[in-house]
Amino acid sequence: MSNGTHYEVLARKYRPQTFSELTGQEHVSRTLQNAIDSGRVAHAFLFTGARGVGKTSTARILAKTLNCELGVSHEPCNVCPLCLEITKGTSTDVFEIDGASNTGVDDIRELRDNIRYLPSHSRYKIFIIDEVHMLTNNAFNALLKTLEEPPAHVKFIFATTEPHKLPVTILSRCQRFDFKRVTLAKIIARLREIAGKEEISISDSALALIARKGDGSMRDSLTAFDQVLAFCGTSATDEDVATLIGAVDRRLLAGISAAVFGADTQGVLEGIKKVDGVGYNMRQFCQELIEHFRNLLVIRSVAKPKEILDLAEAELEELRRQAASFSAQDIQRRLTLLVRADAEMAHATFPRLILEMALLKAATLEPVVPIQELLEKIKALETGAVHTPSLPWDAGRAAPAVEQRHEPRAAHHHKAPVTPTTAAAPVPPGDGSGGWERFVAFVLGKDPALGSVLEHGSPLKQEPGSMEIGFPSGSYYLTSAQDSDSLAEIQALAREFTGRDTLVRVKSIAAEAGEVPLSLVEKKKTEHEQRIEELRRDVAAHPVINEALRIFGGTITDIREA
Are 393 and 538 in contact (CB under 8 A)? Predict the structure, then answer.
């Protein structure tokens, strides 16, 4: 490490100076180099991406490449005076402007006036505007004219973390390059390289903690590495690194997840006690657990998890061992509980209690039958492919319209298997004179409209050669049945049904008349209500349904007869 009085932080000391040194942005480097080699260099570039991924460093490298004394090439020499001036930030022809501090139209007008003059001793005047989205609308409008017709000696390089805030008129005039978050493996490799140059003794697992702290940002990772070295010197242990950067020990995550899947409630609560003891923020730890369970879920769900998860090889192997004994469904159910707990912790007074309750529930979840298996069993029942014990309301019922009969229960509560059957709506047995229900069914087959009217009538009298039908006083059905054409058709159909001439009379009856037989509509309604009430009682007592309600936290809102 440097022994001088002036210490240069790692992020500045190891800032990339050539395209080949850019980590994780190879797609940008290659495109820019090809453009330079072919002479197709645009007049305006837009570099977008998260903080610390190399946008400004790339802008400086591009500026050096275009102005290098040795000529325009796909890599700067970094030794000529012009390259050194740009590296130090002292070039009179390369201007680095902070968009957050120079937001106004006056700043852009000054820049526009400066553009008119030729570069003092370089090939191009290059304007690098960082956080360009911070400019005001008026400033963008003032810049627009220059972007439309730029002088040949001027190049613009804009950098921003929020490209969606830029006007479309600006975006359409720039070549856009999207910088990716640097992968964990590449950050670790770069940190290992720097550790070697600085003669630092540190493990790969500790470097992985530092890299994860950077969250895809190389600069943030180097800043965290600086913090570790300031405390540990030339030797850093895993425990020191975890404590310094506030990262959760991966062994603690693995221990709590193992306790959850092993139904070890003691181990779950002891793990949370350790978390609290070392001073971790409970919600942050919950989010770390969510990420851990998400990694396990991905490993159990896809064939190539390495292509999806941003993990070091050693971490991936460890997670594979942890996930080997669990199904994806087991992991997903517990992950759902943790996500819900995280949302509740956002405004909670007792975050530790919420996390403990969620983990205890996760540890005591009952195993469930996969939904596909249940659907296959139901399908088999419907097709009669298998014999299975009937639901309580099926026992002894031949058809929906027949009164329910329950089999007596034996002392050992065993029911004989029942094979479900499917039947068309049967015509109930009629009375001694041919049956009112049979006659109405007959009319429905001949004339559905007239049959639907008769369904609302009550059979007052049925004798050979005579039929008397009552309808509620003042009802539409009474008026329809009394119509001469309807009455004639009813008599004709009665003759066809009974085989003899039948005199049909239609009478008006009071709606509240107690001695009048029920119409078929009223009878069906009464029977349906009785069946639904029976079903409600059977459902309320059924153990499978009660267990489903307990597991899913549901309530019964409606019961329908299939």
Answer: yes
Indicate whether 534 and 501 sit together in one domain. no
The token pair at 395 is: 């026992």
d(CA 310, CA 209): 13
How many domains would you assign to the chain? 5
Same domain assignment for residues 231 and 303: no
Q: What is the CATH number of the domain that holds 448?
A: 3.30.300.180
Angle at 464 between CA 458 and CA 469, to 5 degrees: 15
Residues 6+ apart with CB under 8 A from 281: none
Angle (nearest 5°) at CA 258 between 253 and 264: 120
Mean pLDDT along residues 71-97? 89
- Looking at residues 76-83, what average pLDDT do you find? 91
Q: What separation in angstroms does the CA of 151 have from each of 115, 155, 372, 396, 522?
A: 8, 9, 67, 93, 91
User: 554 pLDDT exceeds 80?
Assistant: no
Whether residue 396 is predicted with pLDDT greater than 50 in this model: the reply is: no
Alpha carbon 444 to its chain centroid, in Å, reads 53
Domain boundary among 302, 332, 363: 363
Encoded amino acid at 11, one letter? A
Give the amino acid at 277: G
Write the pLDDT tens digit of every residue in 402-431.
333 344 433 343 333 433 333 433 333 334
Domain that holds residue 332: 250-363
Q: 276 and 156: one domain?
A: no
Q: How far apart are CA 517 and CA 247, in angstroms?
A: 80
Note the pLDDT tens digit of each residue in 309-347: 877 777 788 888 888 888 888 899 899 999 999 999 888
**Phi and psi, residue 29, nearest 5°:** -55, -45
**Distances, alpha carbon 430 to alpha carbons 301, 398, 433, 434, 457, in Å:** 61, 18, 8, 6, 16
Phi, psi of 14 (to 5 degrees): -110, 30
pLDDT at 66: 92
Q: What are the counts of helices (DSSP H) followed by strands (DSSP E) for the chain?
A: 24, 10
